[in-house]
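Write out the bound-state structure for zinc ion.
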Amino acid sequence: MNIKLSNKNSTDVNADILVEFVTSDELLKHTEVAILNKAGFKAEQDSTCFLHEKGLLVCGVDSQKSDDIRSAMACAIKLLKASNYESAKLGIHSKRTVSALVDGILLGGYEYNVYKSKPKKSTFKKLFLTADGLDFEKIERVFNEAIIVANATNFTRDIVNTTPHDLHPQTLVALAQKLAEENKLGCKILQEEELKKENMHAMLAVGRASIYGSALIHLSYKPKNPKQIISLVGKGLTYDSGGLSLKPATSMVTMKMDKAGACGVLGMIKAASELKLDVEIHAFIGAVENMIGGDAYKPDDVLVARSGTTIEVRNTDAEGRLVLADVLDYAQNKVKADGIFDFATLTGACVVALGPFTTGIMGHSHKLKHEFSKAASNAGELTGSLPFNKHLKKFLKSEIADISNTSSKPYGGAITAGIFLDTFIKDENKEKWMHFDIAGSAYTETPWDCNVYGATGAGVRMMCEYLKSID
Ligand code: BES
Ligand code: ZN
Ligand code: ZN
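---
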């Protein structure tokens, strides 16, 4: 499907259907209010009414604000794609809603059909956005940027949605190499031999029972005069069976999503390079598969992490923090960054704490937390801050090693996981680091807003908004 931005007046554009967003107040003054009333249309948010004879698709919204427009646009695009129409048009009323419209169209209209033997075919080909009477140059810039970010989000979704058989650590390596080539990024891959030389024994232990070798992926985007250097770190568990602390059957389903942090970070560096941002970006990914087998790492093992810290394994399903411990340490060693941001589907506890749509933000810097929550809300993502405290840290005490990989208490699990990661953040980086737990936000089995079934691409829009705001 093609989206075309036009500076013409909507009446001068030829299309099968005109799409309108209408609040309940605006409905009272609508030229078709009588028919809409008869159809039972009340302009409730996300309700729609097709007036085929009039060539009109009316969409209900609570307000004309971005969040409501994005969600309504996602509903509208699904209807248009399922219809037999070929084209539609809609008027842009303000610069602020341009990204929301693009997200509604591209993210709400996203379909993952790779494993369907007979994918649905749509006749819908063209959507015109008309921006008559507005500053067209500005609108065009926002529009083009929004397309890049939405496409990067869908790129992330595609990888996360790929099955664990088709996407394992080594395919993730190949995918990263392809992205590096296409977007002219630096690319360094550390296979198991090199990981051993780097003493990344926590990460290596997690992947030991997999038939695929674990790998560390380091991509870099280096513009000429960067305003800042940012390191992004992603949890890339291409499958999390739980290991010997095996997950129950029902909890294992969807665990292909445990690579969403890594895939998000790939989407972020892709977008940053295509937006040509003046920010140097390093993406570090721990690509690992957590499986069972005779050589699997075990509860009771003690691992020596790259930093030298010893970790008592009490649960092999708390594997993401072990991988991140080593990758965070490596990232801090290799790049002196102004910001270090990790993304991980780290804990079920985060989903319990914040619900299934919201990303948990943790870290020491109130300023960064505030900036990210602003960036997220501008970009249409939900975030909630989870506070560290020194009392929770005691739950990670180990009798035989420096730290345990699980908490001794069943409460505050998202925070204790964040505090575990904090142990691997160097003192000089404490205020530069943020941890994003995307366990709830990375994947959905019930569509919401512009998110459809499956991977959401959580983090990509928020991070792009944050990176764009760096000056
Ligand atoms: N990958 C999971 C976390 C997860 C859960 C992501 C649900 C998405 C949805 C992680 O590796 C895990 O299993 N964490 C354990 C930690 C526990 C053993 C301390 C969890 O959350 O139960
Ligand atoms: Zn796990
Ligand atoms: Zn996991």
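---
DSSP finds 16 helices and 19 strands in the chain.
Residues 22 and 30 are 9 Å apart (CA to CA).
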